[in-house]
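Example record for the data management plan.
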Amino acid sequence: MRMSPLLLLSLYVGFSSRVASVSAFVPGALHVQRPLLLQPMWMAGFGGGGSGGKNKKKGNKNKAAVVPQKLKAKTQWDRYCVNLKKSKSYSVAVRVTGGDEKGEWVKVGKVKSDGVTTEVAVILQRGIIAEHSKRLRPDKVKPKDAVEWGYSKGDEEEFTLADKTVASNLKGVERMVGFEGLPDPNTGSYCHYKEGRLVDKSDETKQLAQGSATLDMSVLPRVK
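Corresponding structural encoding:
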């Protein structure tokens, strides 16, 4: 005797209901447990630490502004003297920071620019400017001193503090700026010679040359 599909379905549903009822009251009855959903576990030190994996990086916002570009002093001096020969020059200075009081401005040289501001010219070349200041005026700027940069806005010698962030996103602009340091007769840096003799006539050069017995002709940058 064949049973109709409808009858078979009714028997199956009835049997399932009885099994469920028995499982609820009989100890040791078989229970089908749904698989646990494993939550992601974040390990401190590897991108987590109780914050749900949101690792916010801080401190890199002005990284480009903090690290000076690696420019060559001789190249920037050539640009100052040749490429930017017709551009107006502006004085640049540094002063020591980090103490209880900021030091006085120490004039280091001059910058020129074409198409960018004087402030950008100073910031782009701040690495070689600081390096020259420590070589030129070791009595004012020590090798490990931290400095900040200033520039004149005209013919006066009053210096305005340069903002390092002005050149944080500029690339390739170093070709549009140049720097010439004050001549240092003790090392020959930024000194002009004619027939082996120093021909710089500035008051700063005369003052720095006092007490200098010899000039090191092998030191660059130098224009012969």
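Summary line stored alongside the record: The longest helix spans residues 5-25.
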